[in-house]
Amino acid sequence: MNKIIIVADDLHQSKGVCYDLIKGGMEPELCSLSEFLSHADNIQSSTFVLDITDQNLQKKETLLPFKKISETCLFFVLSYVSDECAKLEAFSAGADDYIEKPYHPKELTLRIRNQMKRIEKQQDPVSTKDSQVFLNIYIDEKTRTVKINSKPLLLTKKEFELLNFFLKNRNRVLSREYIQESLWKDEYPKQSRIVDVHTHNLRTKLKNNCANATIGSRRGIGYILEKKK
């Protein structure tokens, strides 16, 4: 859940918020309110900072999408409004925090980081003999399930076996030959690109589902499951 999206109805004005988060070591993206509302049904796990005018904040259609995604996403409200009713409306919609303007840049960063840590602790499963955990990726061999940020990830049979193999050998460079011999035995000739194809597909799925790990390439050697930089 390390992706931060600033939802704003005035992108120019919200550049200051974006700068504050960058200065705090985060990687925010700006998104217009209209664009967010049009794609709200397809949102995956993310962290949102709602920085909009008081007029739009009071509209029910603005907060409604956040209420729907509050179980899988973090969202913060930035506002000049100190009215108790406005705060209650935001928290009722699932807001994790309500930050009044003007704010100290460090305060904004710390509030977001603290909430992220809280979520990570809640979602941090424990490894067992039947399961593997690496960053925000959880895999259960017994039930053959994979989760990222507690959200199920659909994989093919071979993608599951490949990910499980990488998890058991995390932070270790594995040659293509070793991967192919371990997972495919003699099904394909040694010069086959079967490992590259499945690794590419698995890497794409991890990226599209906000995994904190990626499958890196080591030219002329092979692949490694490592923390995303």
Automatic annotation (TrEMBL):
DNA-binding region: 129-227
Sites bearing 4-aspartylphosphate, chain numbering: 54
Cellular component GO terms, alphabetical: cytosol; protein-DNA complex
Keywords linked to the UniProt accession: DNA-binding, Phosphoprotein, Transcription, Transcription regulation, Two-component regulatory system
GO molecular function: phosphorelay response regulator activity; transcription cis-regulatory region binding
Boundaries of every Response regulatory domain copy: 3-116
Xref: SMART domains: Trans_reg_C (SM00862)
Classification via Pfam families: Trans_reg_C
Matches recorded under Gene3D superfamilies: 6.10.250.690, Winged helix-like DNA-binding domain superfamily/Winged helix DNA-binding domain
BP term (GO), one: regulation of DNA-templated transcription
Ranges of residues in domain OmpR/PhoB-type: 129-227
Signal sequence coordinates: none
Protein's UniProt keywords contain Hydrolase: no
Protein name: DNA-binding response regulator
